[in-house]
Amino acid sequence: xxxxxxxxAAGPATLPESVILKAQSELYNYHGSGMSIMEMxxxxxxxxxxxxxxxxxxxxxxxxxDDYAVLFLQGGATTQFAAxxxxxxxxxxxxDYIVTGSWGDKAFKEAQKFCKPNLIWSGKxxxxxxxxxxxxxxxxxxxxxxxxxxNETIHGxxxxxxxxxxxxxxxxxxxxxxNFCSKPVDVSKFGVIYAGAQKNVGxxxxxxxxxxxxxxxxxxxxxxxxxxxxxxxxxxxxxxxPPCFTIYICGLVFEDLLEQGGLVEVEKKNAxxxxxxxxxxxxxxxxxxxxxxxxxxxxxxxxxxxxxxxxEKKFIEEAAKEGMIQLKGHxxxxxxxxxxxxxxxxAGVEKLVAFMKDFQARHL
Length: 364
Ligand code: PMP
Fold this sequence. Notes:
This protein is 33% helix and 16% strand. The protein is an alpha/beta fold and 364 residues long. It folds into two domains: 18-259, Aspartate Aminotransferase, domain 2 (3-Layer(aba) Sandwich), CATH 3.40.640.10; 262-362, Aspartate Aminotransferase, domain 1 (Alpha-Beta Complex), CATH 3.90.1150.10. It has a seven-stranded mixed beta sheet with strand order 2-10-9-8-5-3-4. It binds 4'-deoxy-4'-aminopyridoxal-5'-phosphate. 4'-deoxy-4'-aminopyridoxal-5'-phosphate (PMP) binds next to helix 3. Its EC number is 2.6.1.52. Pfam families: Aminotran_5. Residues 5-352 form the Aminotransferase class V domain.
């Protein structure tokens, strides 16, 4: 549609056009109920069907094993920075954190309030452009879990495979906010996966937590009910009023991803989009530079700078005039960042690459 622009925002982010149109068509009178989904009881039969279908479609997409609970929670991924240690640790328990960017760092700092986290690796001195080799990691033998941020949204660094906790009883925990449902994941490798919806699977307002059932039920006594996985698992995410409309949109996105052929197909499309963008950067004779080590470059968030940094503002402004918006890098790192989640069409990336070549030709 010509009215829709290409939105490269990091989140909230672009949604599939088909999902927006379907939501629009169902908005005024949802399935003949005489009201919109926003106005309904979360305990009514319509919403019950919506949340059940969203959960079962997500289980299909990620092949979530039966011994895992899928929770639709509130508070953003930021709330999970606290919920994870509160649910998995006693106050004196150790937990290991690998910090590959600002989000992992925030998770580590929040955990300090609720357990005894160890920073076992940090990419800070390399400006968060790397993922460590797993063999050399010095994990704490008593750690309850090993925490990673699977994709660092600001720095564009993505785990391509996953470390195994060295302690047999420890579990791997991943913040997948910015690459959730962008590719197949072996859920059984993780104890907890959490993700805010607002990048790949919906609007802001819901955080999806996938947690192995045997880990549920040991929350610290001080844990607020809203952060206790057991409360939400026992009531199928309906302990209190959930973000109904957001869950409904997530359900439409899951349907769309299944219709596309599931996450194997989705990953192929994402790899293609990221490939042409990184090729354009690497083939620019240094006009554009991506600082991230090639083997761990994110398929979702592509940060780059212009060698002539004084041109960055102009680049971002001119791109916006041509219908490509939100290309400014995060305020903490500057430069340019193109977030190209599932719903960014190939045409959007092709248009950006054409613009980059043209801009370069005009500023040599
Ligand atoms: N983790 C990652 C990887 C993120 O990208 C973000 C948001 N940009 C967060 C956590 C925080 O998420 P929220 O705003 O949903 O709390």
